[in-house]
Design brief:
Elements (H helix, E strand, L loop, with lengths): L7 E2 L6 E2 L3 H10 L2 H8 L6 H9 L3 H9 L7 H10 L6 H6 L15
Antiparallel strand pairs: 1-2
Helix pairs in contact: 1-2, 1-3, 2-4, 3-5
Length: 111
């Protein structure tokens, strides 16, 4: 009666509970920084969850998201992180390294 079915991702010694994007977005919206950082570090993080992390305005979670090379950033997430990087300067070097951000960064012409 009180049992909840779960799916585990098998892989070595660290099984992970698998949540869908809506569950992860809920955790991001209602949890604290530690929750958002944990979600941001997940493998194969989708663009909807990346947007939820960026929407949170949590610079620590955004840094963890940018550090996650397997996360797929939506255009909205990149826009929000670019805006946040104006105050949280530590995001800028990480943002520059992301392929998804190249369309949003100013072009520098030399010569």
């Amino acid at each position: 009666e009180n049992m909840v079915p779960v799916t585990l991702e098998l892989g070595g010694k660290s099984p992970v509970i698998v949540f869908d994007d809506a569950d992860l977005a809920y955790v991001v919206a209602h949890g604290g920084t530690a929750h958002r950082v944990a979600v941001a570090g997940r493998r194969e993080l989708g663009p909807a969850v990346a947007s939820a992390i960026a929407d949170s305005g949590d610079a620590t979670a955004m840094r963890a998201l940018l550090d996650n090379s397997q996360a797929k950033l939506s255009d909205r997430a990149v826009e929000m992180i670019v805006t946040a990087s104006r105050k949280a300067r530590e995001l800028t070097p990480l943002l520059i390294q992301r392929e998804e951000a190249r369309l949003f960064l100013p072009l520098t012409i030399t010569g």
